[in-house]
Structures are given as C-alpha cells and as structure tokens.
TrEMBL record, chain A:
CDD domains: PolY_Pol_V_umuC. Residues 18-203 form the UmuC domain. It comes from Enteractinococcus helveticum. This is DNA polymerase V subunit UmuC. It comes from the Bacteria. GO terms for molecular function: damaged DNA binding; DNA-directed DNA polymerase activity. Belongs to the DNA polymerase type-Y family.
TrEMBL record, chain B:
InterPro entries: LexA-like (IPR039418), LexA/Signal_pep-like_sf (IPR036286), LexA_repressor (IPR050077), Peptidase_S24_LexA (IPR006197), Peptidase_S24_S26A/B/C (IPR015927). One of its GO terms (molecular function) is hydrolase activity. SUPFAM superfamilies: LexA/Signal peptidase (SSF51306). Gene3D superfamilies: Umud Fragment, subunit A (2.10.109.10). It holds the Pfam family Peptidase_S24. This is Peptidase S24. Residues 12-124 form the Peptidase S24/S26A/S26B/S26C domain. The keyword Membrane does not apply. One of its GO terms (biological process) is DNA repair. Signal peptide: none annotated. It comes from the Bacteria.
Amino acid sequence: MRADSVPAPRKTDGESYIGLIDANCFFVSAERVFDPTLVNRPVVVLSNNDGCCVALSPEAKTLGIKMGTPWFKLAASAQQMGLVAKSSNYELYGSMSEKLMSVLARFSTWIEVYSVDEAFIGIRGSLDEVQSLGRRIKHEVLRLTGLPVCVGIAKTKTLAKLACLSAKKVDVLAGVCVWDRVPQATRNRMMSKLPVDEIWGIGHRTAKRLGSMGILTIKDFIEADPVVIREKFSIVQMRTLLELQGTPCIPMTYTEDPKQQLIFSRSFAEPVTTRDEMEQVLGIYAQRASGRLHRHGREAKVLTAWAMTSFFNDAQVHRPSATVSLPGYSADPVVLTKAAKALLPKIIDGVRYARAGIMVTDLRDAGVHQMFDAFVSPHERAKVGELIETVRAEHGTNAIGLGRAGMRRGPSWQMKREMMSPRYTTHWDELLQVKAV
Amino acid sequence: MHPRRLVSAGVGNVPAGFPSPSQDYSDNKIDLTQLLIRDELSTFIVRVSGDSMEGAGIFDGDELIVDRSIEPRDGHVVIAVVDGEMTVKRLRVTSTAVILQAENSQYPDITVPELADLVIWGVATRCLHRL
C-alpha cells in the first residue's frame, strides 16, 4: 500500500493545554548522565568558588543537607557520609539544557524556555491524548538526553506548575500529571498537603499573610474568593488564584519558529538592576542569537530587544522594548549587539528586571541576495562574525566575544572549581572515557 | 532541528528539478557533521581506553560517535554501564541470553539474563581512528 493512500489518522482538535516540563534536580542529573557511580548516591553541586550547595540529590536531602548549606561545613564529614560534591560545570549544564529544550521543541512549536531546566509548551488534544503525549515527552527526553524530567499539563501556567509538582511528589503519577484527569478527591488530598507557598508566584511574605487569614494550604487558597484576595493583596495574587481555578491569566510569551523568527530569552537567577548589567546581558543574548542564525543559515533584518520585571512583581511593572531595523540583512554579532543596545536608554537603574530577550525577525537564507545589498558593514566584509563562530567552535563559546560580553568570563579566571567534572560535551580533551577492557 | 542537513543527506547528489538560485551561493564545503552525525541532539562523543575492541577496529584513544536515539539490537557496538563503569562492547542478543562481547580473545564475555537487566547508554555508530 502506498504511504499516501493510507488515510491520515483523524486529528481530534481537542482543547489547548499548557505543559510544564521540569528536569529533576537538573545539575545533579546532568552529572549523573556521564557518571553512573553518582546514581543513588548523595550528590551536591556547589555554587561559584565552591561556596555553598545550589543543587541537591534527594539522597543528599535525606542527609539533612539544605540548599545554601556552605561547603566548608560539610567538607570534613563528606567522605564519612558518602557525599559527593561537584563544582558547577556550567559548560556541561548549558549544553545539556540546550539538548533538553531541543527535544521539547520537537513536540510543540509553542515553547517558552522558562529557565535552564524548565519550559512551558503549548499542546492540543483530548485529555487522553495529552496524557500520552506527556508520557512520550518524558520518555523521549530520557532516551535522547539521559535526563529525567517531570511533566505537568493543565489549562493554565500556574496549574501546570502545580501539576508538575504533584507529578514529582506523587509516586503513582510516574512523573506525568494531567491535572484535569486527576479525580477531584485526589486533587483535594494533594492540595491540602501542600503549603500555600508551593504555589508558583506566592512568595514567602504573601504566604505568611495568607497564613494569618487561615489560608495555609493550596486547597485553602483555591477555595478563597478572588475578590477578597484582590482587596487584601493585589491583582497579582488574584490572577494566581484565578489561574488555579482554571482561568488563564498569565500569557505565554513569544513563540519561536526558526523560519520566521528567532528568540533568545531567559529569566535571570537574580534580578538585573543596573543598565551596565543589562548591557552585558544584551551583549551575550545578541551573540547567542547570532550564533543560532549562523547555525540555521539565516540572517535577519529586524531586531527587538526587551526586558521585563517579574510577572509577580506588581509594585514595579516595567516592560521596555526597542525594535531596530538593521542596516541590511545580517547575522553578524557586531551588528546585532549594536542594535540590541537600543534598549539601554529605556532601562531604569534600580528596577528589578527578571527577564530579557532578543528576537530577530524578517529572516531569509544567508547570502541569498548579497550582491543587491547596498550596505555591507566593514566588519561584515571582514567576516568578524564568521571568525568569532570559528574560534568558538574550536575553543568554546566563552573563548571570544564582543565588548562586555567578551569579558563575561573575566572574574571566573580566578573562580574555584576544584571538584569539577570534565566538560564532556564541549571540549575535545575532556570527553567521556569508555573502557575497552 | 536541522532541516538543511536532513534534506542534503537524502538528495545532495541527486539534483531533482530546477536548482534554487540560492544554491549558487551556498558553500559547498564538505561538512563532516553531515556524514557522521544523524541527529546532533542525541549524539555524544566519547573516548576509548583499552584494547578489548581491537577486533572491531576500535583502538585505545579512538573517539566513538554515540547515538542515544538508536534502539540497541544484536550486533551493535554499545556503550553499556558495567559495575558503574562506561564500557564499550559488542551486543549479542540470542534467544537464551544477552551477551556483552569483547572483540579481543583475551577478554571474557559478560552474560546477562535479559536486555532489561542491562543499562545501555548508547549505540556507537562511528569510530574516529588516527592512521
């Protein structure tokens, strides 16, 4: 039978859902992919300069170790506890994160990378379909990258977060939770066990105030009256409540289709509060966008740079953006970095920006109509961009960069990373060793 | 992820239809990645230490290209976890047993009852050997 004579499976449109995919203790898992001796052992990953614990395996948590515990307090007894510590291996985590996101991008054209180990995706289907899709995503990420993830699927982002948390905590869910498929009684039981500050967007202080009103668990909160919550708190907490009740209030941010547009955007671990810092961030992001354009063999005509305060920071809302038409089609990091700086005058010192991004649009295949372009910048003619890409390919992403982004690694020359594992995926001289014995 | 690569792997040397004008400008340099890597996402490169796979043309210090997306089958050269160590072996699946075979008579086979008892990290597809 010819392939095209097989009737296509009838596509049930179904409803649209939001999936949240979150890697299980990502840094530790990334280490474990390459070092099976770390499996089932207590492992911690340390912050810059081997300062304190920034990631813990469940086994390490069982030992009573907490996030932020300083390493010097653990070092002496580590061996006795069987505890393994690893210095942060940013190159490895970065490359594994990219692999994770690439798998997710195969399941949805609507992906919002939320952080290094987490992304929202848009999906459609019946409850059963999205459930099996969730399972497939979990299975494929593990199979292709070696990383274990949990998947939460629901009608809103906040519920997807909650579903993912449940997927992590409730063994029978096996790492995948479609919120609307869980029986109401089970949901209630789960929510009444979770404290209110486990809700995405409810901070410590809000949780305390809610507690004084007798709202202690997620179940208490979900049963509250949105109007009352708005009166006592603000629109932010009301939105969170409406989201938990099933009304989408927090939109997906930009979507990516490398044919039409290309985006590099991330939430910051710590808010960026100065124009100087933002200049560095934009430089790095513009150069990452340039790298991606090169890889896709595309060039852009328009660049948009934006920054935003946290969606949960109601007291301070600032979402500046700047769109620049480039002098010609380009993938050149110099051109893109320069264009991205158009955002800087709009950045206010002191505002706590939670996220920034670069989007390039109006894309075309690189080198197509070059002869018609009146304007080719001198460094483009000198192929600075290509040179940077070549140096990076050979010596790593941080070997060379433009302006302040090029200085990014400056302070890290002195950084202590004494217990760092090899950079298996980015350095030829640090490849994973396999035994032929 | 890399539509250009997928297309060129299939039809690169069989031009069909009218050539797109952009082909005049695309760089026609040989791209090793195109040949060696089927899917960048699931591909890892590892380095071999030891001589137990010499019969398969894999020598000490060679690099192997490992694709995690391939389902391991009888005859594949695989990276398997043996006693917590990453090991390269030939996978043999018979009706009665699953065997990890060395390609050097000085090394004994490792037999496991079932494939499920084995952690296979990936399937090696190419060996990079210096001449």
